[in-house]
Amino acid sequence: MQQIDGLALRKVLGAFPTGVTVMTTLDATGRAFGMTVNSFSSVSLNPPLILWSQSLSSRSYTAFRDAERFVVNILSEHQIRISKQFSTASDDKFRNITFRSGLGGVPIISSCAANLECVKVSAHPEGDHVVYIGRVIRLERSEHRPLVFGDGRYLVARAHEHDELSAVLPLES
Ligand SMILES: Cc1cc2nc3c(=O)[nH]c(=O)nc-3n(C[C@H](O)[C@H](O)[C@H](O)COP(=O)(O)O)c2cc1C
């Protein structure tokens, strides 16, 4: 069997660009937690389910483990600073962050491409991460374009030139 080291895996997974989210929640004392996450994905449309995975070594691990709810804040292309702030260890992650309180008081970050308020339905520990499944209970989409992350860099999303052509030319059969 081929020996797969973490660095090599991360490099290869960089060939699959993703959006960038900040997951937010509250602990039992009402303290807000947030972390940058690109392992977010859709699971099911009916019922509306999504997933993401969290490293067991995250400082906010117990907060998300014990929380009933979390919010998926899908960052927009002008929110790199927010991505960096929430991926850096700090006791003051919400400094200079504009947000409002969603259901259960969980922070909803302003000016995102989209926000999904979720109830956690299950947690599945696997390897050094835990996979959370959330049920979407409220959602909104803005006009902002999403921030993209791939090959270890921040990217912007733009329409593919061939996608523009597909509007005027029939698809090849
Ligand atoms: C673009 C990007 C995506 C990330 N995705 C994840 C992820 O899916 N899961 C995870 O556990 N950490 C992820 N991280 C790392 C966390 O954001 C980082 O470890 C953060 O400091 C964790 O916060 P905490 O220790 O306060 O909980 C990502 C970082 C970046 C920059």
TrEMBL record:
Keywords: Oxidoreductase. The keyword Oxidoreductase applies. InterPro entries: Flavin_Rdtase-like_dom, NADH-dep_flavin_reductase, Split_barrel_FMN-bd. SUPFAM superfamilies: FMN-binding split barrel (SSF50475). It holds the Pfam family Flavin_Reduct. Residues 13-156 form the Flavin reductase like domain. One of its GO terms (molecular function) is riboflavin reductase (NADPH) activity. PANTHER family: FLAVIN REDUCTASE, FLAVIN-DEPENDENT MONOOXYGENASE, REDUCTASE SUBUNIT HSAB. Belongs to the non-flavoprotein flavin reductase family. This is Flavin reductase.
